[in-house]
Design brief:
Elements: H1 26-29, H2 34-45, E1 51-58, E2 64-71, E3 87-90, H3 101-107, E4 113-116, H4 133-151, E5 156-161, H5 163-174, E6 179-185, H6 216-225, H7 232-236, H8 241-248, H9 251-255, H10 264-273, H11 279-286, E7 287-289, E8 292-293, E9 310-313, H12 323-332, E10 337-340
């Protein structure tokens, strides 16, 4: 890996001013734009040395999905050798393709890798989402299938992180013939929300797994999620928004400090989430609070074909409870399922 800070930065292009003079002050209050997001992301993607094709994929309804395709430019396989199944990566809530920067280079050495911004996130289109949980989930999943058709992939290894893991599982249930291997990394939305216990000792016989408490940024967002869209506080903070991201997610800077010696990654997160809310509206419709899904995936995971390999990865210090992975193993019984912590 090398430090990308020295790479040439592209100049940001100002957005077209809003036509309404009443709201003309708003862009200066909220220091973001799609152009600034593009510029910050370009700096991140400049770290990639393999062949990279970045473009918008247009869906039948004219929504656009920002897509990266990476292939190994060094190793050329013999023409008679069958191509390897491509890996498709689906990011989590509030993320985008730039957060895969540590993984894209290595993973694309052995097979083609696709990564895209989910509908409503990053640089992809930001359409309205319904307030019904099932309909919001279906809009996400339909966009993934329409993206697959537009790209022309017949089969894929599907990897999803956090919210992306939930949507990847839902997609694999609905379109199992398109998924050769499902990989879920710290997937959100699997367990059912436990009932509130009013008396000590209620719910006896239930073993509660110990896990680290949710980090500060999760608690902070959870405090407002019931009243507003989850990331409304970042937009409402105006010029103080980037500072809030730095304060509540300092890990983004430390995790990537060998690549960038400035606030590139936290700026990327800010610009991803300070735009017009869309995907987070869909997420809010799907969630009771940040930690729980209205339609828990554990209730449906048995619908995956037993023949489909499933791998679930959990960080040893993650706030996502890995016991859901153990439950999936029990539910799928003899099916090929691995849980790695």
């Amino acid at each position: 890996l090398f430090n990308c800070h020295s790479l040439e930065r592209r100049a940001a292009v100002s957005d077209t001013p809003w036509s309404s003079s009443v709201w003309s002050w708003w862009p200066s209050w909220r220091p973001t734009s799609m152009s600034l997001l593009k510029t910050t992301e370009s700096k991140i993607l400049a770290c990639i040395q393999n062949d990279l094709w970045a473009r918008f994929v247009t869906l039948p309804n004219q929504d656009r999905i920002w897509t990266l395709t990476l292939t190994n430019k060094v190793v050329r396989k013999p023409a008679e050798q069958a191509p390897k199944t491509p890996l498709v990566m689906v990011h989590g809530f509030g993320g985008g393709v730039g957060l895969w920067i540590r993984n894209l280079e290595t993973l694309s050495r052995s097979r083609p890798v696709y990564a895209f911004d989910l509908l409503g996130f990053g640089r992809s289109s930001r359409p309205p989402f319904p307030s019904d949980a099932a309909k919001a989930e279906e809009q996400f999943v339909n966009s993934i299938e329409q993206w697959r058709q537009s790209v022309g992939l017949e089969n894929m290894i599907l990897l999803g992180h956090s919210l992306g893991g939930y949507l990847a599982a839902s997609y694999a249930i609905q379109y199992p013939s398109r998924v050769s291997h499902l990989i879920l990394v710290d997937p959100w939305g699997f367990p059912e929300r436990p009932q509130t216990q009013t008396q000590e000792g209620q719910g006896q016989g239930t073993e509660v797994a110990k896990r680290p408490p949710p980090p500060r940024w999760v608690k902070a967002i959870a405090a407002v999620v019931s009243l507003f869209n989850p990331l409304a506080v970042i937009r409402a903070a105006g010029p103080w928004g980037p500072g809030l991201v730095n304060r509540f997610r300092p890990d983004f800077k430390t995790k990537f400090e060998d690549l960038f010696d400035d606030d590139t990654m936290t700026q990327y997160i800010y610009h991803c989430n300070a735009q017009t809310p869309s995907g987070e509206v869909g997420f809010r419709a799907m969630s009771e609070s940040l930690g729980w899904a209205k339609r828990p995936m554990l209730q449906r995971i048995h619908l995956l074909p037993p023949s489909m390999p499933l791998t679930m990865l959990y960080g040893a210090r993650s706030w996502v409870d890995s016991s859901s992975g153990d439950r999936v193993v029990q539910i799928r019984e003899q099916a090929h399922t691995k849980v790695l912590v």
